[in-house]
Amino acid sequence: MFEHVAELFAILSTPIRLKIISAVCQREKNVSELLAEIETTQPNMSQHLATLYRSGVLARRREGTQIYYRLQSERVATLCRAVCTQVAIELDPQSDLESSQRLVPSAVRS
């Protein structure tokens, strides 16, 4: 089990992949739409989309010459939302969480 979890976290360890997941959470998008939202090159975007597709995080469909990507795993979206929300709370200077409740070490926040 821990090996599968580590594989999932490895897939999610790249900021651009998290941005892609966030971008397709509400609706499917093609590569052009994703490139308009996420600053990267087309080859780099395609590489990350392929990784997310092969891992089962994203699904895709072809319509003419366009390929549309959508979220395949709602569990991954839930996990990403939970972690991103927690980190945002911790990075907020107004947050008064105890150190035992923090995911982000204090050295990172400084």
Tell me the number of strands. 3
Strand proportion: 5-15%
What CATH architecture would you give? Answer: Orthogonal Bundle
Based on Cα principal axes, name the global outline.
Answer: globular
Average pLDDT confidence is 86
CATH class: Mainly Alpha
Break the fold down into its secondary structure elements and pairings.
Elements: H1 2-11, H2 15-23, E1 29-30, H3 31-37, H4 42-54, E2 58-63, E3 66-71, H5 74-91, H6 106-109
Antiparallel strand pairs: 1-3, 2-3
Question: Main attributes?
Answer:
Arc Repressor Mutant, subunit A; DNA binding; globular; three-stranded antiparallel beta sheet; alpha+beta
Q: How would you describe this structure to a colleague?
A:
- The protein is 55% helix and 13% strand.
- The protein has helices at residues 2-11, 15-23, 31-37, 42-54, 74-91, 106-109, and strands at 29-30, 58-63, 66-71.
- GO terms for molecular function: DNA binding; DNA-binding transcription factor activity.
- Residues 1-91 form the HTH arsR-type domain.
